[in-house]
């Protein structure tokens, strides 16, 4: 069983990646979850889910929706980060790994740039 005592530190570190996104709409901000949407999109006639960090029973999840919308953003990610990927847009962590978190931060920055270019943020 993973050391859940690391989960608050993982959550805080991953949440910090999202708090630096200008223009995003915070939809949840609690001790076990942080969630962001884009502003209202006239094209889709609603806000779009951008991402979230969630503390689960066995891991902390980092959801990054732009990689689902634009899978080419995942080209070139390291095999180590790929091992943490679950589904199409979620990365799960059980321990602090600053190297992977830095790579994820870069992927998030590229994702935000793409969403901005598409006029969604």
Provide tags for this entry.
single chain, 4 helices, 121 residues, Aspartate Aminotransferase, domain 1, 6 strands, alpha+beta, 35% helix, 6-stranded antiparallel beta sheet
Structure description:
About 30% of the residues are buried. With about 120 residues, the protein is α+β, with helices and mostly antiparallel strands. It has a single domain, classed as Aspartate Aminotransferase, domain 1 (Alpha-Beta Complex). The model has no long low-confidence stretch (mean pLDDT about 95). The protein starts with 6 loop residues before the first helix and ends with a helix. Strands 1-2-3-4-6-5 form a six-stranded antiparallel β-sheet. The chain is built from four helices and six strands.
Terminal Cα span: 39 Å
Radius of gyration: 14 Å
Strand content: 15-25%
Label the overall shape: globular
Q: What is the fold-level CATH name, i.e. the topology?
A: Aspartate Aminotransferase, domain 1
**Helix-strand string:** HEEEEHHEEH
Secondary structure: elements and pairs:
Layout: H1 7-19, E1 25-30, E2 33-37, E3 49-55, E4 60-64, H2 66-69, H3 79-83, E5 85-86, E6 90-93, H4 98-117
Short description:
This protein is of the alpha+beta class and 121 residues long.
């Amino acid at each position: 069983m993973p050391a859940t005592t690391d989960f608050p530190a993982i959550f805080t570190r991953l949440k910090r990646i999202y708090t630096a996104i200008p223009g995003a709409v915070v939809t949840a901000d609690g001790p076990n979850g942080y969630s962001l949407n884009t502003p209202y999109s006239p094209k889709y006639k609603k806000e779009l889910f951008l991402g979230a960090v969630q503390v689960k029973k066995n891991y902390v999840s980092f959801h990054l929706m732009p990689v689902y919308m634009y899978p080419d953003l995942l080209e070139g990610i390291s095999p180590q980060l790929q091992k943490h990927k679950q589904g199409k847009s979620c990365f799960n962590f059980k321990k602090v790994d600053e190297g992977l978190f830095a790579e994820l931060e870069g992927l998030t920055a590229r994702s935000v740039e793409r969403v901005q270019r598409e006029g969604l943020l």
